[in-house]
Design goal:
The protein has two domains: about 90 residues, no CATH class; about 300 residues, TIM Barrel, CATH 3.20.20. Helices cover about 45% and strands about 15% of the residues. It is built from 17 helices and twelve strands. The two termini are about 15 Å apart.
Length: about 400
């Protein structure tokens, strides 16, 4: 699989200075963590789930979560588990079908070995499990169950803990909760692919819900949690993990209170004014701003609940030619001693030692999302994807 692999080869050549690399479910964990992109959630109760998975893969989705937790009613769990087993068998019976990375979001640790046993040989299609409401106390049983299931089936299985517990939100327990989570995921580092933020649950603790013209970073109590999670769990010193962005809940706007957040000029220059209108109609300007803020705050990838969110997240994840140029300059071997240099675009200072970790992260993202052509921006990438 590859990002933008659903585009024709000649279109990718036109758009990219360096095309996204091909990867598989067996690629190194560092590659998969960076490549998750817009992770699309789907209830495990869907009767044509196998068809949905293949359809979304054909539209550019590279990671999906099949959910047995909050997206379905408590009474639907047994039927949803049976449906998952049937749908995996259906997928396994379609050799050659392009599949995304598939994860199952469970409710309890006991579901992990049970589902692995019931999937049988079809577990080869599974990349891992999403672990809800993760804390040190709750997380250890999940990770022990994952380790045991992995040993039983002989296949590498990853964990993606969801950070959404009230202990993380409340000021008096936050520091201890973060330290406990770090101890737990550090012990199982090889199995933890990424940490996901459950911002909807954070808001629930205070009876809050952000509007479509507000981002998670406008809700200060949520923004403070994101900052502390990155502070403890997202460091660039070798101890950190990939932390993904929170879900965007909206896919249509009924009424606006504030001005749209997309400038006219980039769309006018590309003769894509209609595209801008469509994005605004479907609340995408808020999503785009939140993705930009995710990246500015050290997050990579995003939880998505609607297929229309996938392409905008991926288009904004592509490394610009300017970013790539700066990163390459900073990481040149002859720059090992540090120093300051003017960027090739002659518009900024690149300070080698302080910017090195940023440059390394940019090149990691460039590997999986590609580098845009020198004159290619977000609008062209998004428009090309929508034409498919």
């Amino acid at each position: 699989m590859r990002h933008f692999g659903h585009l024709a080869p000649e279109e990718r050549q036109r758009l990219f200075h360096r095309e996204p690399a091909v990867f598989t479910a067996d690629s190194p964990a560092r590659v998969l963590a960076a490549a998750l992109g817009a992770t699309l959630y789907s209830p495990a109760t869907r009767p044509r789930l196998a068809d949905d998975v293949i359809k979304q893969a054909g539209r550019g989705v590279v990671s999906m979560v099949l959910c047995l937790e909050d997206s379905i009613d408590d009474g639907e769990v047994p039927g949803a588990e049976e449906n998952l087993v049937r749908q995996f068998a259906d997928l396994a019976a379609r050799p050659g079908a392009e599949l995304p990375l598939l994860f199952i979001r469970v409710r309890t640790p006991e579901q992990i070995p049970d589902l692995v046993r019931r999937l049988g040989a079809d577990v080869r299609l599974l990349s891992g499990f999403v672990l809800p409401k993760f804390t040190e106390e709750r997380g250890v049983p999940f990770l022990e169950a994952l380790t045991a299931a992995e040993a039983a089936c002989g296949r590498r299985l990853f964990a993606m803990p969801v950070l959404e517990s009230p202990d993380l939100l409340y000021l008096e327990t936050r520091a201890a909760a973060l330290q406990g989570i770090f101890r737990t995921v550090d012990k199982y580092r090889d199995r933890v692919l990424a940490l996901r933020l459950g911002v909807t649950d954070f808001c629930s603790s205070y009876a809050l819900r952000r509007a479509p013209d507000m981002t998670a970073y406008d809700v200060q109590i949520v923004a403070s949690v994101i900052a502390d999670v990155v502070n403890v769990l997202g460091r660039a010193d070798g101890t950190g993990f990939t932390v993904t962005g929170p879900v965007w809940e909206y896919f249509r706007v009924s009424e606006r209170m504030f001005k749209p957040q997309l400038r006219h000029s980039p769309f006018r220059e590309q003769r894509a004014v209609d595209l801008r209108d469509t994005l605004l109609e479907h609340a995408m300007d808020g999503l785009l701003r939140e993705v930009a803020l995710d990246q500015a705050n050290g997050l990579l990838g995003k939880t998505c609940i609607h297929p229309s969110h996938v392409l905008p997240v991926h288009a904004l994840s592509v490394v610009s030619h300017e970013e790539f140029s700066d990163a390459q300059d900073i990481l040149r071997p002859e720059r090992g001693g540090g120093g300051v240099l003017r960027s090739a675009y002659t518009n900024k200072m690149n300070e080698v030692k302080p910017h090195r970790a940023w440059a390394e992260r940019v090149l990691q993202r460039a590997e999986v999302f590609g580098v845009a052509g020198e004159d290619i921006g977000f609008v062209e990438l998004l428009a090309a994807g929508l034409r498919v």
